[in-house]
Amino acid sequence: MKPPEEKETYHLIFPEQYPLPPRIQELSRLNTELSLSYQENTLIIREAPPYAFRDYENFLLRLPGFTEELFFQLEELNDETHFEFDDNEEVIVKMSTFALISLLTGAVLTSLFIWAKSRKSGRVYTEDGGYMLESPDGKHLHRMADISYIAYSKASQEEQASWYSRIPIAPSLAVEIVSAKRGLKPALKKMKDIWMANGTELGFVICPFSKKIYIFEISKESYTEQSIFEDFTHPDLPGYKENFSEYAKKIK
Predict the structure, then answer these.
(1) What architecture (CATH level 2) is domain 99-129+145-248?
(2) 0.85 surpassed by pTM
(3) Nearest to 84 by CA among 5, 202, 186
(4) Which residues of 233-242 are buried (b: 16+ CB within 10 A; e: fewer)?
């Protein structure tokens, strides 16, 4: 008899100013797709079937009364975990991915880095380069792109070198790589509603599951798409040409 698969578990340390014991029942009621428990001020998070972590790139934690200041503390207490936060009492917890997706991400990152360096046109950032944008209603959007690029024509080399922590402007190019079977729709929505809506000029959603690249341009209302098996070029990236089919073939 095949043993049951071990469920993935996440442990998040919460700030003392957000005590868990008096909130755990409300948190469980608001986050029904998750199984929540706690030990002191560590929230223990497990999937609640039929929801499965492996099908998604991240999960949402609804946290009543959670503020931007508490979010900063949450990041410091859990420095090996990536979070996103839109100042709306909801924290997005980004989950780890598997090896083939990591290889694809590395290939895209490396090719863009070499291209940008050869042209001396801008800087390429990894997911660790977090952004703090301001929405039209004045809220701070704390977001990360899997890969991003900021042209020196948008922010000079000196200005970019002066950024100590969060990047205060939208990137020239944002790249989101779909790392889970149910991740395409959220990635397309994030590209449209977060990056393009806040000043990004060009966005790529690369999906090894659908075998397509989805291309967003600031001048167009809708995205276009192409096969991931075709060489990828774009007029806004002069001289850039790459093919990512080697990795897509292995992902089902």
Answers:
(1) Alpha-Beta Complex (3.90)
(2) yes
(3) 186
(4) eeeebeebee
